[in-house]
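Chain A, query sequence.
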Amino acid sequence: MQKSIESTQRSFNTIRTGRANASLLDRVVIDYYGSETPLKSLANISTPDSTTISIQPYDKGSMAQIEKAISMSDLGLTPNNDGQTIRLNIPPLTEQRRKELAKQASKLAEEGKIALRNIRRDAVDAVRKQEKNREISEDESRDIQEQVQKVTDQSIEKVEELLAAKEKEILTL
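Chain A, predicted structure.
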């Protein structure tokens, strides 16, 4: 469950908030010589100031593919190529765009909660199977299921806290 929470946190980091952040590009993959490769494996990504992301490819021949992948992504950013580096200017977010990003964050949080519920279901099924095979008693089974539910509730609460923090970050000017 902790891994699901961390995965949800990483997903939240890919949502832009009006400030330049290299993790915005974590979901961008490039078709590099026939294989899907993450952008961070192909280039040095830095943030020289709060409104610019600078991408310096290790292989200058991959600049066109990198530009294309960024343009095709759901980031809504236009790459500027000067032959050596690709610059992404992060424009200030409009109120409408902020609301769209908050909805996107809610969707990612819901995916995280679904993953947590699936883990709970698998754990409860395993406990019931043990009970059915007479490996543990009914009381032990019930206790373990209650513990699993408690951990699930705590994990879902943690995802809710992360979502609230991300929404606050997105909606704050």
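The mean pLDDT is 87. The radius of gyration is 21 Å.
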